Amino acid sequence: MSDESAQDGTSRLRVIDVLRDAGFVDDPSGLGLKFDFGWFSISATHCINPRFAEVVLLSGVIASANRSTLVHEDLPPYADSVEEALAWVAWRLDSNLSGHRALINPPTWLEQGRRHVHLLPYFKREAEFRKRQAELKARPHCYARREWLRLALRALAMASARTREEINVSIAFDGSTLMLTLWDELLPVPASGDAWAERYAVPLASFSKVPRRFRRGVIDVVVTADALCLDEFTFTPITIEVGREP
Protein backbone atom coordinates (compact mmCIF):
# COMPACT_ATOMS: atom_id res chain seq x y z
CA MET A 1 0.00 0.00 0.00
CA SER A 2 1.35 3.43 -0.89
CA ASP A 3 0.78 6.98 0.28
CA GLU A 4 0.12 9.49 -2.48
CA SER A 5 -0.64 13.17 -2.60
CA ALA A 6 -4.31 13.97 -2.93
CA GLN A 7 -5.55 16.97 -4.93
CA ASP A 8 -5.39 19.10 -1.77
CA GLY A 9 -1.66 18.36 -1.50
CA THR A 10 -1.91 16.16 1.58
CA SER A 11 -0.38 12.70 1.80
CA ARG A 12 -3.14 10.12 2.25
CA LEU A 13 -3.88 6.48 1.48
CA ARG A 14 -5.32 5.58 -1.89
CA VAL A 15 -8.64 3.83 -1.28
CA ILE A 16 -8.09 1.56 -4.30
CA ASP A 17 -4.81 0.34 -2.77
CA VAL A 18 -6.54 -0.36 0.54
CA LEU A 19 -9.14 -2.46 -1.28
CA ARG A 20 -6.46 -4.44 -3.13
CA ASP A 21 -4.75 -5.22 0.17
CA ALA A 22 -8.12 -6.17 1.67
CA GLY A 23 -8.76 -8.89 -0.93
CA PHE A 24 -10.14 -7.19 -4.03
CA VAL A 25 -8.57 -8.65 -7.20
CA ASP A 26 -7.99 -7.28 -10.68
CA ASP A 27 -11.22 -7.09 -12.67
CA PRO A 28 -11.04 -9.27 -15.82
CA SER A 29 -12.26 -6.23 -17.78
CA GLY A 30 -8.97 -4.53 -16.95
CA LEU A 31 -10.79 -1.65 -15.25
CA GLY A 32 -10.11 -1.51 -11.54
CA LEU A 33 -10.71 -4.22 -8.95
CA LYS A 34 -13.43 -6.71 -8.17
CA PHE A 35 -14.68 -8.62 -5.12
CA ASP A 36 -16.88 -11.71 -5.44
CA PHE A 37 -19.40 -12.29 -2.65
CA GLY A 38 -20.69 -15.51 -4.23
CA TRP A 39 -24.17 -14.39 -5.28
CA PHE A 40 -23.05 -10.97 -6.51
CA SER A 41 -19.83 -9.06 -7.12
CA ILE A 42 -18.71 -5.45 -6.71
CA SER A 43 -16.19 -3.52 -8.82
CA ALA A 44 -14.07 -0.61 -7.62
CA THR A 45 -12.45 1.75 -10.12
CA HIS A 46 -10.25 4.79 -9.47
CA CYS A 47 -11.46 7.24 -12.13
CA ILE A 48 -12.82 10.68 -13.01
CA ASN A 49 -16.59 10.98 -12.78
CA PRO A 50 -18.85 13.02 -15.15
CA ARG A 51 -18.41 16.06 -12.87
CA PHE A 52 -14.62 15.84 -13.42
CA ALA A 53 -14.02 14.80 -9.81
CA GLU A 54 -11.50 12.13 -8.85
CA VAL A 55 -13.39 9.25 -7.21
CA VAL A 56 -13.42 5.54 -6.57
CA LEU A 57 -16.49 4.23 -8.38
CA LEU A 58 -18.19 1.34 -6.60
CA SER A 59 -20.41 -0.47 -9.08
CA GLY A 60 -22.24 -3.72 -9.70
CA VAL A 61 -25.63 -5.38 -9.57
CA ILE A 62 -27.07 -6.99 -6.45
CA ALA A 63 -29.80 -9.42 -7.49
CA SER A 64 -31.85 -11.58 -5.16
CA ALA A 65 -35.16 -13.44 -5.50
CA ASN A 66 -37.48 -10.42 -5.43
CA ARG A 67 -35.16 -7.45 -5.76
CA SER A 68 -32.43 -6.09 -7.98
CA THR A 69 -30.22 -3.11 -7.09
CA LEU A 70 -27.85 -1.24 -9.40
CA VAL A 71 -24.84 -0.13 -7.39
CA HIS A 72 -23.26 3.14 -8.54
CA GLU A 73 -21.50 4.97 -5.72
CA ASP A 74 -18.79 7.65 -5.90
CA LEU A 75 -16.41 7.25 -2.97
CA PRO A 76 -13.53 9.52 -1.95
CA PRO A 77 -10.31 8.39 -3.68
CA TYR A 78 -8.17 8.99 -0.60
CA ALA A 79 -8.55 8.29 3.13
CA ASP A 80 -6.65 9.11 6.29
CA SER A 81 -6.49 5.48 7.40
CA VAL A 82 -7.23 1.92 6.33
CA GLU A 83 -10.21 1.91 8.68
CA GLU A 84 -11.70 5.04 7.11
CA ALA A 85 -11.27 3.68 3.57
CA LEU A 86 -13.00 0.41 4.46
CA ALA A 87 -15.71 2.29 6.33
CA TRP A 88 -16.61 4.24 3.17
CA VAL A 89 -17.01 1.02 1.17
CA ALA A 90 -18.90 -0.79 3.94
CA TRP A 91 -21.32 2.11 4.49
CA ARG A 92 -22.24 2.52 0.85
CA LEU A 93 -22.38 -1.22 0.18
CA ASP A 94 -24.67 -1.80 3.16
CA SER A 95 -26.92 0.98 1.90
CA ASN A 96 -27.34 -0.88 -1.37
CA LEU A 97 -27.80 -4.22 0.40
CA SER A 98 -30.86 -2.88 2.23
CA GLY A 99 -33.83 -5.07 1.35
CA HIS A 100 -31.70 -8.01 0.26
CA ARG A 101 -30.84 -11.11 2.25
CA ALA A 102 -28.04 -10.69 4.73
CA LEU A 103 -24.51 -11.71 3.82
CA ILE A 104 -23.47 -14.99 5.38
CA ASN A 105 -19.92 -14.91 6.70
CA PRO A 106 -19.11 -11.37 5.49
CA PRO A 107 -15.43 -10.82 4.66
CA THR A 108 -13.10 -9.45 7.33
CA TRP A 109 -12.63 -6.14 5.52
CA LEU A 110 -16.40 -5.52 5.45
CA GLU A 111 -16.78 -6.22 9.17
CA GLN A 112 -13.80 -3.94 9.88
CA GLY A 113 -15.37 -1.17 7.81
CA ARG A 114 -18.68 -1.53 9.62
CA ARG A 115 -16.94 -1.12 12.96
CA HIS A 116 -15.39 2.17 11.86
CA VAL A 117 -18.22 4.07 10.14
CA HIS A 118 -17.98 6.56 13.02
CA LEU A 119 -14.87 7.89 11.24
CA LEU A 120 -16.92 9.17 8.29
CA PRO A 121 -18.02 12.83 8.09
CA TYR A 122 -21.76 12.08 8.23
CA PHE A 123 -21.45 10.06 11.42
CA LYS A 124 -19.00 12.57 12.93
CA ARG A 125 -21.54 15.36 12.36
CA GLU A 126 -24.31 13.19 13.81
CA ALA A 127 -22.21 12.43 16.90
CA GLU A 128 -21.34 16.12 17.30
CA PHE A 129 -25.03 17.05 17.02
CA ARG A 130 -25.98 14.51 19.70
CA LYS A 131 -23.18 15.86 21.89
CA ARG A 132 -24.40 19.44 21.48
CA GLN A 133 -27.98 18.37 22.25
CA ALA A 134 -26.82 16.57 25.39
CA GLU A 135 -24.84 19.63 26.47
CA LEU A 136 -27.85 21.85 25.82
CA LYS A 137 -30.10 19.54 27.83
CA ALA A 138 -27.60 19.60 30.70
CA ARG A 139 -27.59 23.41 30.84
CA PRO A 140 -29.95 25.19 33.22
CA HIS A 141 -33.13 25.84 31.26
CA CYS A 142 -36.87 26.14 31.61
CA TYR A 143 -39.94 26.96 29.54
CA ALA A 144 -41.92 30.16 30.11
CA ARG A 145 -45.11 31.50 28.56
CA ARG A 146 -44.49 34.37 26.17
CA GLU A 147 -47.05 36.78 27.64
CA TRP A 148 -45.70 36.48 31.20
CA LEU A 149 -42.08 36.78 30.12
CA ARG A 150 -42.84 39.83 27.99
CA LEU A 151 -44.36 41.63 31.01
CA ALA A 152 -41.23 41.00 33.10
CA LEU A 153 -38.90 42.10 30.30
CA ARG A 154 -40.86 45.33 29.77
CA ALA A 155 -40.55 46.12 33.45
CA LEU A 156 -36.78 45.57 33.29
CA ALA A 157 -36.49 47.73 30.16
CA MET A 158 -38.36 50.57 31.88
CA ALA A 159 -36.15 50.24 34.98
CA SER A 160 -33.04 50.31 32.79
CA ALA A 161 -34.22 53.53 31.14
CA ARG A 162 -34.78 55.19 34.55
CA THR A 163 -31.39 54.51 36.11
CA ARG A 164 -27.71 54.82 35.28
CA GLU A 165 -26.78 52.69 38.25
CA GLU A 166 -24.76 49.59 37.48
CA ILE A 167 -26.93 46.91 39.00
CA ASN A 168 -27.62 43.28 38.24
CA VAL A 169 -30.85 41.43 37.74
CA SER A 170 -30.86 38.25 39.84
CA ILE A 171 -32.28 35.22 38.01
CA ALA A 172 -33.30 31.88 39.52
CA PHE A 173 -35.72 29.05 38.80
CA ASP A 174 -37.26 26.80 41.46
CA GLY A 175 -39.05 24.36 39.17
CA SER A 176 -42.29 26.34 38.80
CA THR A 177 -41.36 30.03 38.73
CA LEU A 178 -38.64 31.92 36.88
CA MET A 179 -37.70 34.61 39.38
CA LEU A 180 -36.24 37.90 38.11
CA THR A 181 -35.29 40.11 41.05
CA LEU A 182 -34.30 43.78 40.86
CA TRP A 183 -33.80 46.01 43.94
CA ASP A 184 -35.47 43.31 46.04
CA GLU A 185 -38.54 43.52 43.80
CA LEU A 186 -39.55 40.12 42.45
CA LEU A 187 -40.83 39.72 38.89
CA PRO A 188 -42.24 36.17 38.85
CA VAL A 189 -42.74 34.34 35.57
CA PRO A 190 -44.62 31.00 35.65
CA ALA A 191 -42.40 28.36 34.02
CA SER A 192 -41.78 24.62 33.89
CA GLY A 193 -38.69 22.44 34.01
CA ASP A 194 -36.09 21.21 36.47
CA ALA A 195 -35.01 23.60 39.22
CA TRP A 196 -31.64 25.30 38.73
CA ALA A 197 -28.81 24.58 41.13
CA GLU A 198 -27.44 28.13 40.89
CA ARG A 199 -28.68 31.70 40.94
CA TYR A 200 -27.41 33.95 38.13
CA ALA A 201 -26.92 37.66 37.53
CA VAL A 202 -27.22 39.70 34.34
CA PRO A 203 -26.58 43.49 34.17
CA LEU A 204 -29.78 45.51 34.10
CA ALA A 205 -28.38 47.46 31.15
CA SER A 206 -28.60 44.28 29.05
CA PHE A 207 -32.39 44.55 29.23
CA SER A 208 -32.52 48.09 27.83
CA LYS A 209 -33.76 46.70 24.54
CA VAL A 210 -36.06 43.73 24.76
CA PRO A 211 -37.57 41.68 21.93
CA ARG A 212 -40.69 43.22 20.45
CA ARG A 213 -41.99 39.86 19.40
CA PHE A 214 -41.32 36.22 20.21
CA ARG A 215 -42.15 33.78 17.45
CA ARG A 216 -43.38 31.04 19.78
CA GLY A 217 -45.90 30.96 22.57
CA VAL A 218 -43.58 29.04 24.89
CA ILE A 219 -40.07 30.45 25.26
CA ASP A 220 -37.02 28.28 25.90
CA VAL A 221 -35.00 30.03 28.62
CA VAL A 222 -31.41 28.72 28.63
CA VAL A 223 -28.30 29.66 30.61
CA THR A 224 -25.12 29.22 28.56
CA ALA A 225 -21.53 29.82 29.58
CA ASP A 226 -21.80 33.56 28.90
CA ALA A 227 -25.42 34.50 28.25
CA LEU A 228 -29.06 34.20 29.18
CA CYS A 229 -30.87 33.02 26.03
CA LEU A 230 -34.57 33.52 25.39
CA ASP A 231 -35.07 31.59 22.17
CA GLU A 232 -32.81 33.41 19.67
CA PHE A 233 -32.36 36.50 21.87
CA THR A 234 -29.35 36.74 24.21
CA PHE A 235 -28.57 38.89 27.24
CA THR A 236 -24.93 39.16 28.34
CA PRO A 237 -22.83 38.79 30.34
CA ILE A 238 -24.16 36.27 32.83
CA THR A 239 -22.43 35.23 36.06
CA ILE A 240 -23.17 32.94 38.97
CA GLU A 241 -24.20 34.76 42.10
CA VAL A 242 -21.80 33.48 44.72
CA GLY A 243 -23.04 33.10 48.27
CA ARG A 244 -26.75 33.21 47.45
CA GLU A 245 -29.12 30.28 47.59
CA PRO A 246 -30.90 29.49 44.33
Give structural notes.
This protein is α+β, with helices and mostly antiparallel strands and 246 residues long. The protein folds into two domains: 3-134, no CATH class; 141-240, DNA Polymerase III, Chain A, domain 2 (Roll), CATH 3.10.150. The chain contains five helices and 17 strands. It has helices at 15-22, 82-97, 108-115, 121-138, 146-162; strands at residues 3-5, 11-14, 25-26, 33-36, 41-48, 54-64, 67-75, 78-79, 141-145, 168-173, 177-182, 185-192, 200-203, 218-223, 228-230, 233-235, 239-240. The strands form three sheets. A nine-stranded antiparallel sheet has the order 16-15-14-9-12-11-10-13-17. The protein is elongated, with a radius of gyration of 29 Å. 24% of the residues are buried.
Please state the structural category. alpha+beta
Which H/E pattern describes the elements? EEHEEEEEEHHHEHEEEEEEEE
How many separate structural domains?
2
Shape: elongated
Number of strands: 17
Provide the residue-averaged pLDDT: 91
Straight-line distance between termini: 62 Å
Q: How large is the share of residues in beta strands?
A: 25-35%
Strand order of the largest sheet: 16-15-14-9-12-11-10-13-17
Uncertain runs are: none
Q: Mind telling me the C-alpha Rg? A: 29 Å
- Portion of residues within helices: 25-40%
What is this structure, in a nutshell?
The protein has helices at residues 15-22, 82-97, 108-115, 121-138, 146-162; strands at 3-5, 11-14, 25-26, 33-36, 41-48, 54-64, 67-75, 78-79, 141-145, 168-173, 177-182, 185-192, 200-203, 218-223, 228-230, 233-235, 239-240. It has 246 residues and is of the alpha+beta class. It folds into two domains: 3-134, no CATH class; 141-240, DNA Polymerase III, Chain A, domain 2 (Roll).
